[in-house]
Request: fold
Amino acid sequence: EVQLVQSGAEVKKPGESLKISCKGSGYSFTSNWIGWVRQMPGKGLEWMGIIYPGDSDPRYSPSFQGQVTISADKSISTAYLQWSSLKASDTAMYYCARYSGYDRRMYYFDYWGQGTLVTVSS
Amino acid sequence: QSALTQPASVSGSPGQSITISCTGTSSDVGTYNLVSWYQQHPGKAPKLMIYDANKRPSGVSNRFSGSKSGNTASLTISGLQAEDEADYYCCSYAGSSTWVFGGGTKLTVL
Reply:
């Protein structure tokens, strides 16, 4: 059974750094792109970026380029989303999701993590 | 890269049909058939309902269907049921390994 399990909720102060994780199981982790999606309180889904765990090749939405870093460690089947200096506006639920596809193709998100709530407040 | 345009809300009575539109541009919806639709209930992760504009994953009710014409994709739900009340999001490939979501539509079953 394919599963994506995300790390737990975080409460941070502005200016702090943070790295949240998404651990895949039940499939070959290196063979599918993993994406990150933001959902601010009461708002819609926003596509942030993706990574191909096979070679840690990241791609970013122009809106999030330079604001976050997406990485992966294929040895432990885990993808990461990190911030170097959080802002209050980073408060949101963050989902990881797996792209269906093969040979580096991406078609749609077929499996989702449970979400990680990040709260940034002084 | 702007969000795809969806109506903020739609509503219908049980048994009726509703359609949610998703309007993009020639850079995303108009060029690629890689349009998917997701259902999200409050406090839950999104769930895939339609992919490749008009294909339904196994396990999804055949009351859900998708279509695409030009720069606009559509999700139709027939025989509305109370459990269909949720937020719905479209998503399209936008080139250069990037994707874009729609703003979301809240479906209310009256």
